Amino acid sequence: MKSQRRILHIDMDAYFASLETQACPVLKGRPVIVGALPGSRGAVASASYEARAFGIRAGMPVAQAQRICPQAEYLACHPSLYIHTSRRILHHLLEVTPQVEMFSIDEAFLDVTDLCPDACGEKAEELAREIAGGIERRFDLSCSIGVGPNKLIAKMASKVNKPRGITSLSRDGFRRMFWHKSVEDLFGVGERTSASLMIFGIERIGEIAETPVDDLRSRFGIFGEALHAAAWGEDDTPVVASHETPPAKSLGHEHTLQGDLTTPDEGLHLLLGLTERVAGDLRREGYAGRRVAIKLRYSDFSDLSRQRVLPHPTQETRDVYRTAKDLFLGNYCGGGIRLLGVTVAELRPTAGRTQLGLFPEDRRYSRYLDTVDQIRDHYGSESLMPAGVLSRSKARMS
C-alpha cells in the first residue's frame, strides 16, 4: 500500500513588511505598508499585521489604504532584499530535505513523506514546528505552516491561523473546514471563475463538490474537472524540488535610520555592521566578490552610489570593510544620512574552497571568521557583533 504523502506549505508572515521593519527597527509595532507610495496609482504589496487590523490588504489601491490608515508608514519595495532573504531561507529549508519547491518569493512546499512515517501525521506537525522555530531563530522572521496530504490542502491550511500558525488538515478535515466557505477561498479560483460559478448558482466550495463533474466539464472544460477535484481536496501535483538555485549576481544590505547620521564616525559604525552581514552572507552562500559598492541616501532623499573593483575576489569582512570605508570617507561631504547600504557584486562561487593565508595572522583571521560564522548560525545573526556596532546600536536603535 502506498503511504500517504506529507506536504508542508511554508508561508512567510507579512514578508516584505517584516523585512522592512528589520531594516528600520523603529517601525516595529507600527502599521507598515509596502508597495506604491501615496500619491501614485499603485497598490499595496504587503502590510504588517498592525496595518491589517485596519483592513489593509495586498492588492488594495494605495489611495484607498491611505484613506483607511493615514497614520501608517508607507515604504517603497526593495526587491533585492526580498530575493536575497528568500534565497537564504531556501538554503535553510534544503538542510531539512532536498524536496523543496519555492512556490513564490515568500512561499515554499516541502515533501517530508520520507521524514514522517507515522500514519496520523504527528511527526509532520512536530517537524513543522521545528522548521518555524528555526526560521525565527535564524532570520528573525515568522511563518505559518500548513500540513496536509497534498499541496492544495497544505497551502490552504497555512492561511488558517496566521501569523505563526501550524495547521494540519486531512482530506476530511479540509472538507469540514472549507466546504461552507465561498468559492473564492478555493485555491486556484480567481475573480472571473468565481463570478462564472455564481452565475450558475454555485457559491460555496461544497456546492462545487456536489455538482456532477460532467456538468462542470460542460461549463468550464477541462478546468471543471480540476475544480471538482480541488473541492474534494484532491491534488496529485508533485513537489518539484529546487536542487539548484540561480546564482546570485550580488549580495548586499541596506539600513534606514531612525534618526539621521551626522558624523563620519556614526557612518563608519553602521558601515561596519552592514559589512559584517554582507561578508557573512558571502561565506554562508559560498561566494567571493570583486566589486564593492556603497549607497548613501541623504536627508533630502538624494542618493549617492560609489563602487570599486578589487584585484581579487574576496569574502573576508576586513577586505570588504576596508574598501567600503575608503569609499565612504572619500565621498561623504557632511549632512544628514538617512540610509546606508553595502553591496558586493561580480560574484564567483567558491565551491567550498577558501584562500589560504600566506602569513600566520591571515590563517588566524580565517579561523576567527569560521568561528564567528558558526556562532551566528547557531545563535542568530546578531548574537556576536563588533563592539563598535553595539555601541552605535545603543545610541541610535534603542
In short:
With 398 residues, this protein is of the alpha+beta class. The protein is 43% helix and 21% strand.
Describe what you observe in this structure.
It is a single chain. With 398 residues, this protein is α+β, with helices and mostly antiparallel strands. The protein has three domains: 1-169, Reverse transcriptase/Diguanylate cyclase domain (Alpha-Beta Plaits, 2-Layer Sandwich); 175-231, 5' to 3' exonuclease, C-terminal subdomain (DNA polymerase, domain 1, Orthogonal Bundle); 250-396, DNA polymerase, Y-family, little finger domain (Dna Ligase, domain 1). It is 43% helix and 21% strand. It has helices at residues 15-23, 49-52, 62-68, 79-94, 122-139, 151-158, 171-178, 191-199, 205-210, 213-220, 222-231, 264-285, 317-331, 360-379, 387-396; strands at residues 7-12, 32-35, 44-47, 73-75, 100-104, 107-111, 143-148, 166-168, 250-261, 287-298, 303-314, 337-349. The strands form three sheets. It has a five-stranded mixed sheet. Strands 9-12-10-11 form a four-stranded antiparallel sheet. α10 (213-220) packs across α11 (222-231) and α12 (264-285) packs antiparallel against α13. The longest helix has 22 residues, at 264-285. It is globular and about 75 Å long.
